[in-house]
Amino acid sequence: MRRRWAFRGLQQPVKAEHINPFVGSTTKVFDTMLSCELQRGELSIGDGCQPVYDISGIIGLSGKAAGTVVLSLSREAAIQATATMLGETPDDLNGDVVDAVGELTNMIAGAAKAELEQLQMSVSLPNVIIGRNHCIQFPTGVKPICIPFESSIGALSVEFGLKEET
Asked: Model's pTM, two decimal places?
């Protein structure tokens, strides 16, 4: 029996088999790349536009499902993640931080995509946006699922919205 997460406002139920790969890939990437254990918070429906934190890595997915994956990090989490990856702490949100966030986003999306092989998706190149109040577009009719995490390096979240092609 397939478990489905039913959230009001969605045109179709969110399938647990879509959620779990993103939870698992995020946890694994942060553990493997940063030796950082994540504590997952409550799943919620994103507002469909604004990520929670100041810096966001964004990747598009296409294939039998189309969508967007967003890794949104607090300033401190982005700087600490970069420091761990490069062995040097950046003074501020700079090119090294942008590169690190893009790479983490790419790894999370790629690992989740591998677990969703039946959807035969391709992953775009990551884009990274810095600053408050930026807006991310998800496929029409899709409200993203937001998965918040707490960690020793700071707060972060993963939002994704997938729309299966019919």
From this structure: 0.88
